[in-house]
Design brief:
Elements: H1 2-23, H2 53-57, H3 72-91, H4 95-117, H5 122-135, H6 144-168, H7 176-216, H8 226-238, H9 240-246
Helix pairs in contact: 1-3, 1-4, 3-4, 4-5, 4-8, 5-6, 5-7, 6-7, 7-8
Length: 249
């Protein structure tokens, strides 16, 4: 029953995340006005706004204009529901479970925005750093010192890379949003979180970029790195014991 409740709550919050993803980059309120079809502008009725179910009942189309609804909406809702279940399973019903769910949810929202628009919003990144530092005083799985050092390492390493590319190569080898994201990851998950984000994220980003490398036969293309850093951190945190055991730590 606990897992069922967690899944439903996650679905509901996932519906809200869709609003944040759509409105935050445009500087719009995420609270009002109520959701509407982007094509015809008709307000979405409450019974057409039930996570997952409404999409299936409507067969992925607006009730009024029959415009197709992006499958990304139910996918985000489902991801949020599964995240809630995963956090409950991994950390039980605890403060750590709630904080990890909030952290992973923020990474999910920023990743989708980065994939769509190549930006990582400061409205999530910056508060996330300070909230994570403050939360470290009441968490049992990380100390305030670990959180602070993680934030500094997460800021320092990518900032050095960013400044090197800007100064000597006259280009951005790493977006400044990624720098702030790694500081946020470090504040929440410590130096280990930064390491897993960079190593696993770089590997996943390389796998994603291979088709572009083969097609373009050069390095003159841009990919959003935020989603891969986020996924690397997520996998590192979830499988922390297995990864540390594998490397002999």
């Amino acid at each position: 029953m606990e897992y069922a409740i967690a899944f439903v709550v996650g679905l509901i919050l996932g519906s809200f995340y869709n609003v944040v993803i759509h409105r935050l980059p445009e500087g719009k309120s995420v609270i009002s006005p109520p959701s509407a079809c982007p094509k015809c502008g008709s307000r979405i009725r409450w019974y057409d706004n039930i996570p997952l179910l409404s999409y299936l009942i409507l067969r992925g189309r607006c009730r009024d204009c029959k415009e197709k609804i992006s499958p990304l909406y139910p996918l985000i809702e489902l991801s949020s529901g599964l995240l809630a279940v995963l956090c409950l399973w991994n950390w039980n019903l605890s403060l750590e479970a709630f904080l990890h769910y909030a952290f992973f949810s923020s990474l999910l929202v920023m990743s989708v925005i980065d994939l769509k628009l190549f930006i990582l919003p400061d409205e999530i990144n910056i508060p996330g750093i300070f909230i994570s530092l403050a939360a470290s005083f009441i968490r049992t799985d990380i100390t305030p010192l670990d959180s602070l050092v993680g934030a500094l390492v997460g800021l320092g390493i990518p900032l050095s890379i960013y400044l090197y590319y800007v100064k000597f190569r006259k280009m951005e080898g790493l977006g400044f949003g990624d720098v702030k994201l790694l500081a946020y990851i470090g504040a929440f998950a410590g130096v280990y979180g930064v390491a897993s984000a960079l190593m696993l994220g770089s590997f996943l980003g390389l796998v994603y970029a291979l088709p572009f490398l083969i097609k373009n036969k050069n390095l003159q293309f841009v990919i959003p790195f935020g989603p891969f850093l986020s996924l690397g951190c997520f996998l590192g945190v979830i499988f922390k014991e297995e990864i540390l055991s594998f490397v002999g730590l």
